[in-house]
Every structure is written in structure tokens, then in C-alpha cells.
Amino acid sequence: MTKNTKMPEDPSPPIVLGTRGSELALVQAAATEALLRAAFSDLDIERRIIRTTGDRRTDVALAEVAKVEGVFDKGVFIKELELELESGGIDIAVHSLKDLPTTLDEKFQLGAVLERAAVRDVLVSKDGSDIASLPQGARVGTSSVRRAKQVAFLRPDLEILDLRGNVPTRLRKLAEGDVYDAMLLAEAGMQRLGYLAAETSSGDESEPVNGMPGLRVRRLPESEFFPAAGQGAIALEIRAGDARTNEFARALNHEATWQRICAEREFLRLLDAGCHTPVGVYSSLVGDVLQLKALVFPETGGEPMSGEASGSDPLKVAEALFQSLK
Length: 326
Known about the structure:
The chain has 326 residues and is an alpha/beta fold.
């Protein structure tokens, strides 16, 4: 990321960021604003909070929202933001990258990604269990088909229950209620909201959830419990062809994260995988060598396919991973 970048010509109009209104989304928007101000000290930045279909429809399972509302792919959390982008109401839409469709409408483009946070999933419970040590028949909450499929594969005896609401709401449901014995969340969101510190231990033991007495968390190794493509990354979506906004966005782009997410998203594109296709993708970048592994669960059930590939070109690595599936 470039510091103290020279302002593009005609800097007078403000840059308007659009974001969802959840606590996590606002933290991500604030992080984006801070980076923009560090790179462009004279830039006027405004923020608009936009309520999306996914925020509004909490009465049905997340996997069913798109069907009920007639929204394509991952559009449940981006549709209204893209409408504001298209109309000029906002200039940059700030998303959790894993909410973005694999292929964007031609009117929009992925302008940049910020440096990636932790990519792992975490298991939150009252006793600090990991998946293997959960009691027989324990009730596990998640809104993710990918997480549900992996849990069912590892522990077919567990009961998977739908889970909606923002991160604080979900944690309170576990701490104060008796519906769930455990729930799966993203490590990045837990860290960004202050519930979980950056890892300092080996990760083999449970840790307390900050601000939620009685709850403990286990970080699940990404090489064993595969995360979603793009998990942990913040995406900046802009209008296609908007040169001024693109210059601002690209100044914030984190190149190593970009390489990894390009490979992960290209693999999803080759699979023709939507937001509810249960696919886990794990990437690492050491020097210029990108390694990519995947676990693909048939929607109708059965054994998952797996594969891995490595190389220096993200698109070629994604193609090799696709071809390696078995």
C-alpha cells in the first residue's frame, strides 16, 4: 500500500463509501477510511450506511434468502450497495470479500482488497470443545452450507441448526440461551470486533471470548477445516471504468492478498460455484509460490472431492487445482 500518495487530479468531490450497518461492517468501513486518509491526507471521505436484503430477511435461513428474494448468487448482502454504486450514490462499496459473487456484473469491478486477516473458522462453546470433543448429538449453529457440510462430514452425529444475526447477537444467543451447544464463526470477524486477540499461543487450547463471560473459542486449522474463498479479506467494489475511484482503491490494494484471492475466486468460477455451493479453499503464498487446496462437497451428499496445486500464476494454479479434483 502506498503512503502519502499524490492526489489524483480534481480531488474536490468527496469519495463516498457504502457499507452495511452491522458492527463488523462498520469496523471494516472505518479501516478502509483510515487507510484512505493515510494515503490521501486531503481527501474528503463520506460514509453511507445501506441496509441490504440479507440484513432485512432474518426470518428465513440465509441459504434460502436468495431464493425467496430472487437475488442471484451472493447478492443478498450486496444488491442494494451495487444499486447505489450504479446510481452514483456511493463511489466504493466496502464488503467482506466472501459475500461477493464469483463473477461481478459488467457494470462493476473489484477495485482492491485490503491486507487479509485470519482466514480460519472458529468453534465457540461454553467449555472450549473442539469439533472432535463435542458431546454426542451436540447442536451446532451456523448459517454457512460449507461449514455445515464439513461438520457433518467430520461428525455426522451432530445436529446442525440455522443461525442468523450479527456476531454479537450470535454470541449472546449462545451465552444466554439453551438452543445451541456451539457455533461456528469466522476468526477475522471475532478479531475485528475485539472478541478474540491475535493468536499468541500454539492454537491447541481454547481461549476466552473477550466481553462474553462463559464462552470459549477454538481456532480450527485451515488445512483441516477449510475456509471460504476470500474469507478474512475486505473488498472494495467500484464502478467499472471509473478511473478516479480506481486510483484511490488501487492505492490501498495488498498485493499478496490479491494474488491469493484471485486464485481462490478463479477456482470457484471454474467450478461454477455460487455462495451456497459447499466449497472450502485454502491458500498460502511463500515467496512467489502460491499453494492452493480445496474440498468440494456434493450438494446431494456423499464424499467430498479434494485437490491441490501450486505455482506462481494465480489463474494457472486455480486451473491446475480444478483439474486435480478427485
